[in-house]
Design goal:
Length: 277
């Protein structure tokens, strides 16, 4: 959760103070019998010593009275911001972690690891809906010394999208180039048809999690051969179907800077996004 080698998005420090983008038709909503005024409700930020810090409006998807709490520095130097129910504190979290609504991490000027722990309303894309108050607080913290704030995002769903493009369920300009024998990220004097064929074979293996024909494992050679087209596909995916965490940052006008291959090598993430972040 505390990696800082991932996809990086720059964010103007002038925005650190901006409220989360409101949803359409704000007003009174009801969650589990609780009615709250979404337009006027605010959030308080508490650090580990319970010091209250002023914040902007809360997300329209949260009940009244929720609070953002900040931990002290963790062993790796990062700090965690937690969204907790009314009257809960960090001691309660230590006793029962299940009370957490959402969380996000900050390490120096890096914001990353946005996650929703409780989604009782089964919201689609809950991170981008529930976490804006956390992002606001995290951005203030990351930009406190006047430096450029950066965000790091997962790309869950990238592999599934590539498979759908390979099966012609969706359209990909990058994939079309490969199918036409145009290699990605190579000099013009190389054998374009041959390289494109190798790249296409590699990204198919990465997307499906199955070794290439003639190979017994999905190894580093496959990821090396597929690196350039996979990064290009990741950028295309981020533009066309941005995943939930990425939407959280781009809703605050963050700009995509680059894709890092194999930033996370955990097996489940390799299957979900080929390790790219």
């Amino acid at each position: 959760q505390t990696r800082t080698t991932t996809l990086t998005m720059l964010h103007s420090l002038q925005r650190t103070a901006r409220t989360a983008t409101p949803v359409a038709n704000p007003g009174k909503r009801r969650w589990n019998g609780i009615t709250a005024n979404c337009r006027t409700r605010g959030i308080r930020l508490r650090s580990d010593d319970a010091r209250i810090v002023e914040t902007k409006d809360a997300s329209d998807y949260l009940e009244a009275g929720v609070e953002v709490h900040r931990t002290g520095d963790l062993p790796n130097g990062a700090r965690q911001f937690l969204l907790l129910p009314p009257h809960a504190n960090l001691q309660h979290v230590r006793q029962d972690p299940s009370i957490r609504i959402a969380s996000i991490f900050v390490h120096k000027t890096m914001v990353f690891g946005a996650r929703v722990h409780s989604n009782p309303r089964d919201l689609e894309n809950p991170i981008s809906k529930i976490c804006p108050p956390l992002l606001e607080a995290a951005m203030r913290d990351a930009g406190s010394e006047g430096l450029q704030v950066q965000a790091l995002s997962t790309l869950h769903g990238l592999s599934r999208w590539v498979v759908e493009c390979l099966e012609e369920q969706k359209e990909s300009e990058i994939l079309n180039q490969l199918l036409q024998g145009q290699a990605i990220g190579e000099e013009e004097d190389v054998d374009q048809d041959n390289v494109a064929s190798v790249q296409l074979e590699a990204i198919r293996a990465i997307a499906t999690g199955r070794p290439r024909p003639g190979h017994s494992v999905l190894g580093m050679g496959t990821f090396r051969d597929g690196q350039a087209p996979w990064e290009a596909l990741a950028k295309e995916f981020a533009d066309k179907e941005p995943p939930d965490e990425l939407q959280l940052y781009t809703n605050e006008r963050a700009e995509l800077v680059y894709i890092e291959s194999l930033a996370d090598k955990k097996p489940d993430y390799l299957l979900s996004a080929g390790g790219a972040m």
